[in-house]
Amino acid sequence: MNMIKTSVPKLNKLNHSKAPLYEALCLYEETNRTSMHVPGHKDGRVFDKDAQHHFSNVLKIDATCIKGIDDLHQPTDSILEAQNLAADAFGADDTFFLVGGSTIGNLGVALTICSPGDKILVQRNMHKSVFNGLLLAGAHPIYIAPAIESVTKAAMVPDLHHFEEALAENPDVKGIWVTNPNYYGMSQDISRLAEVCRQAGVPLIVDEAHGAHFGQADEVPPSALSMGANLVVQSTHKMLTSMHMSSMLHVKGDIVDRERLARVLGMIQSTSPSYLLLGSLDLARRYLVERGRDHLKDTVQRLERRREELTKELKSLSIWAGSAEVQRRDPLKWIIASKDESVSGYHLLDLFYDQGAVAEIGDPRNIVFLFSLNEKEEDIDKVVEAVKAIDQKLLELSVTPHEKKDIIMFEEEGTVYEPKMSLQDAFHRPRHKVKLDEAIGSLCAETVLPYPPGIPLLNPGEEITKRHVDSIKQLHEMGAYFQSPSDDSMETLYIIK
Q1: Quick one: which of 29, 150, 215, 319 has the fewest CB in 10 Å?
Q2: Tens-digit pLDDT profile for residues 415-428
């Protein structure tokens, strides 16, 4: 596996022992003034009694924008300082706190970069929020099909020359948008892609939802910012320690209009943001800089040792260890599959759940275990024992053999195409429902979304092919979960009239 050297951001002598926003919330609690403002639970005085023992402490700092507590939409004090500290820790020029997950970040980026009718080059295996953002912006995405890792069949960033060709054919695009790493922790070197974007005068946008810890130690892959990206969206809650729905949007360089970005975020984020989530972002940064980087280094070393030992013992299962196609892998993620390919990832998901180990994701081939920055040895032991138990159970399990047939989600790597109809036009057109097989050749009028990882198999406006229909049938038969389909049975589909 080719090893790209990472570099931890150099801190600019800021005081990272401070957590200014969290400290402002603590001061709010200590002053103990009578709340005659929102929220209605009044610092926890009025709340469900049976649940109060769980919520009482956090309700005391579930504040709002009043005197002494900064405003997310016009930060001048503790939030501004907290965001500056975060920018320093992650190597950005500017950082924006998000309270709607990376979804809000992707929507904000789309509405900042694109105006109605603008073209943008987008890696096709993006999270649904990217396509939703482009729909809202009225943009016309040009899709580029991802590369597929040969063992896991996971989609990832295609080779650079595909982007160069696509950019040469479409010099008027407003930017290039990729996902790196993918859900499975596979990371590609995008530094040359960043240089191509710089020369073309367009921003490189990276959905780095699963890589908030990247670049924070030499033992993990480098961050998108360190490789030259201009806009990076990170789910701080996924791989770092902030609360669910809290994320960060990092900006680097002069190509992005900060004023427009701030204005857009002010439009799509709540005017009553959760200060619990904002405070947790502040604390996640402090923990990362003060102790998390050392914990990350130690945890990776222990996980790698245990993974290598465990791999030698396994008879039925395998743990992916990388491939020549992937420059760096995230050592905090174990991709586990059965050596017998008739055992699906969905089956493994259920087996491990019954064993007491809940995986992050199951797909037709794999499951993924996601470890934290600081795993105790006893918790790693539990996972290892669960893997050994399922490995033995599969030896005894009678599985009906079936013909191996890969599910093809995307076009051939590097294929560049525009959907038959723009996302926004397709969303507003009249539609009607037909049998799945009868939909072939029509334009899709809904998002067909196996979840996780939340990457659409079909977007509105794309032409439905036999490959799409076959993939839907295969996924449904294997037990895949589809998010918000018009038909839970997946026997019918909305098409554009």
Answers
A1: 150
A2: 999 999 999 999 99
